[in-house]
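I would like you to sit down with the pair of lines that follows and say whether tokens and residues agree.
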Amino acid sequence: QVQLVESGGGLTQAGGSLRLSCAASGRTISNSRMGWFRRAPGKEREFVARISWSGISTRYADSVKDRFSISRDNAKNTVYLQMNNLKTEDTAVYYCAEGISLVATMDPNDYGSWGQGTQVTVSS
């Protein structure tokens, strides 16, 4: 089993930046596809980004494209989400998750282990 713990959330102003971290423990995630999801107030959980096991392939939701960047450091067993030019619409609880297979994409059902989430609040 693996445990995922997100951190780095907080309060920032529109146009600001935050860097989220997802630290894994219990076993390695170096050969797993990883994803970031978020749940905004009044909305359902939505896909944000995913990264392949090697880190060479990344995908993003249209709403965050060109603003967010997902990366990983397998030596540290950690996945990151760099969020730039934040908007008030980005306010949400952000979750990282481990893909069930190497082809997991934007469907949350493709992910097995989930973190507890970290709150990101963007003010105007």
Notes: The chain has a mean pLDDT of 96. The radius of gyration is 13 Å. The longest strand covers residues 18-25.
